[in-house]
């Protein structure tokens, strides 16, 4: 038996999307069984790390057999909450907001984009992949009516805290924030920041500090 999900460390959880991705690739290639050594060679984690990580999720590994890819993939999907479905909205319908709206893969994992919002009259009334762009003034009523779970912030950083406050007040449970600012939200609101420039600057550091 695996651990209670609440007892699994965040460090392990942060590695799960990578397992999920590799296991999905294996299933697509019709590979149904894999050893921790083979997974290790593919993923760049040590075999012992993989065994430790996956031991959190019950008896999917068997001595001499390896892992049942399908079962493990299913369990990781469950733990990541990817069996559920979520209503989402994007606030800020510029370059990034539209790029996210146009990326159809999120929908496959249950993230349904219900609407985009903006202040720019040129964007309001448009549709991005059949999803309407509404005036920001309609945000609260819309979230309330459609039971939106996740707000995605793609506005310039100056407006991001105000948008976060509005999203929280309207009743979203989680915020996916792309603005380069650390937002303050109540403790019961889940927030995940994607600071693309942080990642780019690490790349720059590594580029400039090569052996
Ligand atoms: N585009 C990228 O690749 C990228 C990369 C890293 C970070 N970001 C961050 O993502 C955010 C969006 O970037 P972008 O390139 O899409 O900018 P953008 O200027 O193309 O789009 C921002 C949109 O937000 C709208 N907006 C402004 N104030 C608003 C408000 N109060 N309510 C609703 N909408 C409002 C604007 O009208 C505009 O359409 C920025 O914070 C940026 O720093 C973007």
UniProtKB/TrEMBL annotation:
Record flagged with keyword NAD: yes
Localization of this protein: Cytoplasm
Family annotation (SMART domains): CoA_binding (SM00881)
Task of the protein: Modulates transcription in response to changes in cellular NADH/NAD(+) redox state.
An example molecular function term from Gene Ontology annotations: DNA-binding transcription factor activity
Residues annotated as domain CoA-binding: 82-182
Domain of life: Bacteria
SUPFAM superfamilies: NAD(P)-binding Rossmann-fold domains, Winged helix' DNA-binding domain
Pfam families given in the database record: CoA_binding (PF02629), Put_DNA-bind_N (PF06971)
NCBIfam families: PRK05472.1-3, PRK05472.1-4, PRK05472.2-2, PRK05472.2-3, PRK05472.2-4, PRK05472.2-5
GO cellular component terms, A-Z: cytoplasm
Residues that bind NAD(+): 92-97
GO BP, sorted A to Z: negative regulation of DNA-templated transcription; response to redox state
Keyword vocabulary terms for this entry: Cytoplasm, DNA-binding, NAD, Repressor, Transcription, Transcription regulation
Residue ranges the UniProt entry marks as DNA-binding: 18-57
Subunit annotation: Homodimer.
Organism: Natronincola ferrireducens
Family (UniProt): Belongs to the transcriptional regulatory Rex family.
Protein name, per record: Redox-sensing transcriptional repressor Rex
């Amino acid at each position: 038996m695996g651990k209670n999900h609440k007892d699994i460390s965040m460090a392990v959880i942060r590695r799960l999307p990578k397992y999920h991705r590799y296991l999905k690739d294996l299933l697509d290639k019709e590979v149904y069984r894999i050893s921790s050594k083979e997974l290790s060679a593919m993923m760049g984690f040590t075999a012992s790390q993989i065994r430790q990580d996956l031991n959190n999720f019950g008896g999917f590994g068997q001595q001499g057999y390896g892992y049942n890819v399908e079962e493990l993939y299913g369990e990781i999907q469950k733990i990541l909450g990817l069996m559920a479905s979520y209503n989402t909205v994007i606030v800020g319908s510029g370059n990034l907001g539209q790029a996210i709206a146009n990326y159809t893969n999120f929908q496959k994992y249950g993230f349904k984009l219900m609407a985009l919002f903006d202040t720019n009259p040129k964007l309001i009334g448009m549709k991005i992949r059949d999803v309407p762009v509404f005036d920001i003034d309609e945000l609260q009523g819309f979230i309330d009516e459609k039971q939106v779970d996740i707000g995605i912030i793609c506005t310039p950083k100056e407006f991001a805290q105000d948008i976060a406050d509005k999203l929280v007040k309207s009743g979203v449970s989680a915020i996916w924030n792309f603005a380069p600012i650390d937002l303050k939200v109540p403790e019961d609101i889940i927030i995940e920041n994607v600071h693309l420039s942080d990642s780019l600057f690490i790349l720059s550091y590594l580029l400039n500090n090569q052996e």
